[in-house]
């Protein structure tokens, strides 16, 4: 076991933005919107639900970003969980 490899940050702004958009939107947007739009009844309600869910997703993203800034090592959520609960 040698020295751990250094992190190589290779994602630029465009690549990271494209990855986030692809992950958040995905294909489910086309299948689920009609169902809950029908149940909500108004366009305003649909937009408010989308806004609320977007804000909820933003809080999760900002939390993970803050954790990544505090612990800048490869491993992501595994590293954060290991820091809280210790090695198993």
Automatic annotation (TrEMBL):
InterPro entries: AA/rel_permease1 (IPR002293), AminoAcid_Transporter (IPR050598). One of its GO terms (cellular component) is membrane. This is Amino acid permease/ SLC12A domain-containing protein. It comes from marine metagenome. Gene3D superfamilies: Amino acid/polyamine transporter I. The lineage of its organism: unclassified sequences, metagenomes, ecological metagenomes. It is found in: Membrane. The chain crosses the membrane at residues 12-33, 45-64. PANTHER family: AMINO ACID TRANSPORTER (PTHR11785), SOBREMESA, ISOFORM B (PTHR11785:SF512). GO terms for molecular function: L-amino acid transmembrane transporter activity. Keywords: Membrane, Transmembrane, Transmembrane helix. It is a multi-pass membrane protein.
């Amino acid at each position: 076991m040698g020295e751990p490899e250094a992190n190589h940050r290779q994602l630029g702004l465009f690549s990271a933005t494209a990855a986030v958009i692809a992950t958040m939107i995905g294909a489910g947007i086309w299948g689920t919107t009609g169902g809950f739009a029908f149940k909500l009844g108004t366009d305003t309600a649909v937009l408010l639900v989308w806004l609320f869910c977007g804000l909820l997703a933003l809080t999760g993203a900002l939390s993970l970003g803050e954790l990544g800034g505090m612990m800048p090592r490869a491993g992501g959520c595994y590293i954060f969980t290991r820091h809280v609960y210790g090695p198993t």
